[in-house]
TrEMBL record:
It comes from Claveliimonas monacensis. It holds the Pfam family CN_hydrolase. Keywords: Hydrolase. Residues 1-246 form the CN hydrolase domain. One of its GO terms (molecular function) is hydrolase activity. The keyword Hydrolase applies. SUPFAM superfamilies: Carbon-nitrogen hydrolase. This is Carbon-nitrogen hydrolase family protein. InterPro entries: C-N_Hydrolase (IPR003010), C-N_Hydrolase_sf (IPR036526), Nit1/2_C-N_Hydrolase (IPR045254). The keyword Thylakoid does not apply.
Length: 268
């Protein structure tokens, strides 16, 4: 499976982000990626006050464009996350995945709200304007099952474990760590989840913008089921493309049988 991760700049003009994505996808065509992945809130500046005004219904203009792009390029498009509004007017941080025909095959609403207050560091309160989702998301592809969650969700090992128990051998995490938690926990978290769950993990961030209200850490990365960083970017815009074989997760699980040796009765 060839996976491309796009670390893009976030423009405040929503549709400009889609235009840039189109350019990137055309550039990527020659490499024939199977799955293309984007960062968290890739078409909305990461600010709680902006989430409601950027929000669209499922099926709205951004959704439709993403679906068409997946079909035109014949790719699985894990379209980072976007701001979604439901019929009741509630707003969610939502990740959609489209298949090669542009059909939506997965939808994950961020379950854990990113409400933190680090003394002398990052403050953020997603719950000011967002509503949490309440589901664990795993979807099927021609390569097997893939798990999906959003940024802060991945700090909760229980969620990743559940995805893996439901068959995921790759977990996609559109994310946006910051200048406080990025250097401390970004790579550590991805490598820990990969090692514990013996699966590939792909974390895709937007590029760093020092002018933005919330400064993203960047460092889009891909980690193997053995915990090796296959590739990690810096903070700039760009794309990484890697070929992975999900059956490698089976090999690691056979050789170092952690998942099968669990003792649920002891853990309670
Ligand atoms: O967990 C972190 O440090 C960052 C989380 C975050 O930025 C998010 O959930 O969007």
């Amino acid at each position: 499976m060839k996976i491309a991760q796009i670390q893009s700049h976030v423009y405040s003009e929503k549709m400009e982000n889609l235009e840039q994505l189109e350019v990137r996808l055309r550039e990527l065509d020659g490499q024939k990626p199977d799955l293309v992945m984007l960062g968290e809130m890739f078409c909305c500046p990461y600010e709680t006050s902006l989430f409601p005004s950027y929000a669209e219904d499922e099926g709205g203009p951004v959704w439709s464009r993403l679906s068409s792009l997946a079909r035109e390029h014949s790719i699985y498009l894990a379209a980072g996350s976007v701001s979604e509004r439901d019929e009741a007017g509630k707003v969610y941080n939502t990740a959609y995945v489209f298949d090669r025909d542009g059909r939506q095959i997965a939808k994950h609403r961020k379950v854990h709200m990113f409400d933190i207050q680090v003394e002398g560091g990052q403050h953020f309160r997603e719950s000011e304007t967002l509503t949490p989702g309440d589901a664990c998301t795993v979807f099927d592809t021609e390569f097997g099952k893939i798990g999906l969650c959003i940024c802060f969700d991945f700090r909760f090992p229980e969620l990743a474990r559940r995805m893996v128990l439901e068959g995921a051998r790759l977990i996609l995490v559109p994310a946006a760590f910051n200048m406080t938690t990025g250097p401390a926990h970004w790579e550590l978290m991805f490598r820990s989840r990969a090692v514990d769950n013996q699966c590939f993990v792909a974390g895709t961030s937007c590029a760093r913008d020092m002018q933005a209200n919330y400064v993203a850490w960047g460092h889009t990365l891909l980690v193997s089921p053995w915990g090796d960083v296959i590739e990690e970017m810096g903070e700039e815009e760009g794309v990484i493309v890697n070929t992975i074989d999900l059956s490698y997760a089976d090999k690691v699980r056979r050789e170092l049988p952690l998942l099968s040796a669990r003792r649920e009765e002891v853990y309670g």
